[in-house]
Every structure is written in structure tokens, then in C-alpha cells.
């Protein structure tokens, strides 16, 4: 059974459709890039998968189930925003995740936080934006989830941080699990992806493996993307 | 789940509530000390200071109550309707446990405020002639009421406490519902929240008065003794509050489940 | 280990090429233990599953073998490595000859260029 599936998924706000009749399936063990320009519907799809929005039509399934308490136990979601409470410190955040998520690997998280030189007693309020993003990523990737959904994990960070983020993803990802990375910065993540999905204006334009794209087109996914989405 | 959620609620709100509660108690202590000093002194300055402190104390009690409601409403807003909502609503917990954790913790804080108020008054008046005279005159009046109207004073107080407590919880729920509804709109979220707050307040008043009015004119009557009348009236008041609370609860839960609009 | 991955060719075949090259060039000697799949995946910046599949192909080719508990090892059979070295060399030659003929060179000219060019190339490489 695919770990993530959309069946005729549609989401409209008033008359404007954010997603139109989306059909796709992601199997376990794949790292998938959800690629499209801003406003193409990537974030809407991810929010629907996490139960933060309800579909206008069609359905979204995680491991065959509609989004709910059972799916939240197996999905680890990294939103684009800073979503951790500002008053907590790193240690309290780890307590929090450990309390609510049975699959949270505390020692892993502690190791990564220490490796970055972050004081566990430092409050989120006092952390720089870059540090906050890294902490969020560490918390999300420290869960042994079946599906990771990362919304723009590498946007707005320096190249060294980008490398760190990608190696954190690879290093912590359970090989049975799947990762969906939504981004518009393709060149930096291309090498880590197995599959790519091009999305524009709420519709799926392309779904393929990276190797197929490179073989058929003789160019990188990034190059193909630029071609397909040329203004 | 509920227990864990409540634990974090207390941690988040305690940082603001505990200092306020402590301040009220310390102010009470201050009033008590000032009263004792005033009794042994004829100085005008001392008298003025005592009056000032009494004023601060009364303000502290008022501010504590107002702040409690404000802090609970702000907590709901920040934790559910801003970016923290991404964290809370992706936890493997139902919207109901999330909502009840807030309701329980708010209610407990309101009870704590009430208890702190009573405690503060007792501290302020402890063995201090002026204030304790005032307190004992209240107690006398209460005793005469009990004797004259054969009302069970203790039960009346208990029932009043429940009604007041329920009213606080319902007011809190009203804030929650107003915000949950207001924020489900794509634009002008704050405006809609305030608008719905006023609508709910008016609805609350109408239902409250309407209900009591109906009850007093239709339900009661010569067939019932004054005692039963009193208790039943209290019961009706509780019933109305509970019903309104349930309506606001359902509204809030529905909005959070279906129309959550995190940006 | 140095990974040379470009974005225009399929990742999978490039991983296999890089691994074969590392073994053939002696970066991993016969009998050497290879790093874990995850470590190599992190080095190369690819999905560990893809690295796993590449290593499995190498196993099928007989260049590496795995021992359940101890991990993956380079084969001790030097002949297998020699075969791999030769087939990599043949690939290089094929692609070289293809490029040269696109430039319009014939067999004799290619050989002459090779003889003069080899001297230079060998000395330059030796100095690196």
C-alpha cells in the first residue's frame, strides 16, 4: 500500500482552486521532491495530509487512512514557519516531543543538538532564526516516522546549513520510511531525491523518477524544471 | 493525552499567573502590616500611605481577575490560532482533548483566583480591627439572613460558587468561540472575532435574563417554598450556563476541526 | 571517498561507476571492509536505499560480498577487479573514440596524437 496517496483531491477557497483533481501515490522507502513555484499548491497538499485542512472533494490517505490521530502518530511534519513555542528551551522541546510522540528518539535529538553547540537550556526566543530552523528539523527528523513531510526545509539558509540539513535528512531517515520534500530550490536537493512531482496551479504536471528524467532528457531535473516553468 | 496537555498548559500559563497571585497575597500582607502601623501612629503620612496601599490592594484584586481572563484568552489565541497551531494540531490528540485541556486549566486558574481573593481578604483583615470589624459585620448580616429566611446559608454559598465558576468558564468559552469563529474567516480575522464576541455577549445576556425571567414567572409560584425556590433557581441558573457553555464548546470544536486557517 | 556526481546522468549508474572506480583504483584494497550504506549515502548525498541498490549490483557483479553481521567487503579475487578495471577502461576508450571521430579524426591520426600526448599526460599526472 502506498504510504501517501491522493485520489481526485481538490481544495478550493471560494472559487479559486488551490488543488484540482490531484492523483498521486508515494511508496515506502522513497525520497520524493514536490516541486513547483510559489503558490502552486504544495503547502495546501501537505496541510491536507496533516489534517490541518479538509478537502473540498476527493481524499488524501496516509497508509490507507484518512488524516486523524492514527496518521499523526506516523507522520512527522516540518512546516515552513517557526512553530515551536518561544518560551520553551531545547530541553523542554525534547520533553514535549518525547511526551506526545512514541517514536521520538531522544538520544538522537540530544546528540544532534549538542553537535551544533546549542545550549539545551537556551530558550527559542533567544535563538537566531537559523538555529530555530535547525532545532525544528532535528526534532522532526528524530522521530522514527513512516512519512516525513518537509515544507521548504532549505529555503532562506546559507549553503553550509543547507548541506547540514540534507545530511541530517539522509542520516536520520529510516529506510522503510518515505520523505516528501516540498521546495522550489531544486538544484540543492536534486541528488538526494528518488522521485519528483512537478506541480503548478494546483495540478500535477509530471511524476517520474529522477533517473528517468535525466535519461530521457539528458539534463538535470533542475534544468527540466526551468524549461517547464519558464515564465 | 489530556493530562499531558494540561501539564504543558499549566507550565505555559503559570509563568504569568503565579506572579499575579503572589502579588495579590503580598499586597494583602502589606495592607495588614500598614493597618497595624496606623493603629499605633497618628501621623497623616502614615494614614495616607495606608490608604494608598489599600487602594493598590483593591486594584490588585481587580486586575488579577481581569488579567486571568485576558491570559486565558491570549493563551488560546497564541497556542491554537498562530504558528504554534501547527505544532498543536498535528499532535496525535483529538480536538476535544486539546480544547478540554484549555477549559480545565482556565477553570482551575479561575478557582485559584477566587481562592486567592478570599485568602487575601483574610490576610489583610487578620487581627486588624478596622478591616476585621467590616468582615465580622458581613458575617453577622449573613447569619441574620440565614435565621430570618430559613435559607441554608452554606448551601446557598456553595451553589453561588458553582454558578460563578460556571459563569467564568462560560465566559472563557465565549472568548474561545468568538476567536475560533473569527479566525475561520479569510480576512479581517480580529474584526470578526470582536464582532462575534459582542454577538455572543448579547446572546448570553438575552438567554440568561430570558431564562431566569421565564423561570421566575412560569416555573415558580405559591406551590413552592422559598427554600426550594432558591435552590431550584440556582439549579436553573447552572443549567442555563451549562447549556450556553455546551453551545460555545460545540461551535469552537467545529471551527477548529473544519475551518482552521493557519497561515 | 570522493564522489563525482553530475546532474545530467542518472544517479544510479553514476554511483555504480564511482564505486567500481574506487575499487579498481585501489582506494579500497581487496578484502577491505567498506563503510556502511548510510555513511556512504551521506558522503554522496543520496538516498541510502539507492546506495544500497548500487552496492547490491556490485555484489551481483562479484566485486563486493556481504557477510551478514560484519558488513560489506571488497572481493579478494584480484581477477574480478582486473575484469572491472578492463571494462571501465574499455568504456573510456569507446567514449573517447566516439568523441574523436565526431571531431573528424581517423585511426592513424588518433594513434599519433596518443603517442605524443601520452608522454605529456603521464608526466603531468605524475607531478599532481
Short description:
The complex is a heterotrimer of chains A (231), B (263) and C (128). Chain A has 231 residues and is α/β, with parallel strands linked by helices.
Mind explaining what this structure looks like?
The complex is a heterotrimer of chains A (231), B (263) and C (128). With 231 residues, chain A is of the alpha/beta class. Chain A has a single domain (4-228), classed as Rossmann fold. Chain A is built from 9 helices and 9 strands. In chain A, α6 (159-172) links the parallel β6 and β7. In chain A, α3 runs antiparallel to α4 (106-115). The longest helix of chain A has 14 residues, at 159-172. The model of chain A has no long low-confidence stretch (mean pLDDT 92). Chain B has 2 domains: 1-66 and 109-149; 150-263, no CATH class. The longest helix of chain B is centred in the first third of the chain and has 38 residues, at 2-39. Chain C has 2 domains: 11-76, Arc Repressor Mutant, subunit A; 79-127. In chain C, α1 packs across α4 (78-103) and α2 crosses α3. The mean pLDDT of chain C is 87. Chain A binds chain B through residues 13-14, 47, 50-54, 69-70, 72-73, 75, 77, 79, 81-85, 87, 92, 96, 99-101, and chain B through 1, 4, 7-8, 11-12, 15, 79, 83-87, 89-94, 186, 258, 260, 262.
Q: Radius of gyration of chain C, rounded? A: 17 Å
Count of extended strands of chain C? 2
Largest sheet data of chain B: none
The number of helical runs of chain B is 8
CATH topology of the largest domain in chain C: Arc Repressor Mutant, subunit A
Say what oligomer this is. heterotrimer
Secondary structure: number of strands of chain B: 0
Keywords, please?
heterotrimer; A: 231 residues; alpha/beta; Rossmann fold; six-stranded mixed beta sheet; three-stranded antiparallel beta sheet; 26% strand; B: 263 residues; mainly alpha; 2 domains; 8 helices; 86% helix
SSE diagram, text form:
The complex is a heterotrimer of chains A (231), B (263) and C (128).
Chain A (H helix, E strand, L loop, with lengths): L3 E10 L2 E11 L4 E5 L6 H8 L7 E6 L6 H6 E4 L11 H11 L5 H10 L13 H13 L5 E5 L7 H14 L5 E6 L2 H4 L5 E6 L2 E7 H8 L3 H8 L3
Parallel strand pairs in A: 3-7, 3-8, 5-6, 6-7
Antiparallel strand pairs in A: 1-2, 1-4, 8-9
Chain B lengths: L1 H38 L4 H38 L2 H5 L6 H31 L3 H21 L3 H30 L6 H31 L6 H33 L5
Helix pairs in contact in B: 1-2, 1-4, 2-4, 2-6, 4-6, 6-7, 6-8, 7-8
Chain C lengths: L10 H14 L12 H8 L3 H14 L2 E4 L3 E4 L3 H26 L3 H21 L1
Antiparallel strand pairs in C: 1-2
Helix pairs in contact in C: 1-3, 1-4, 2-3
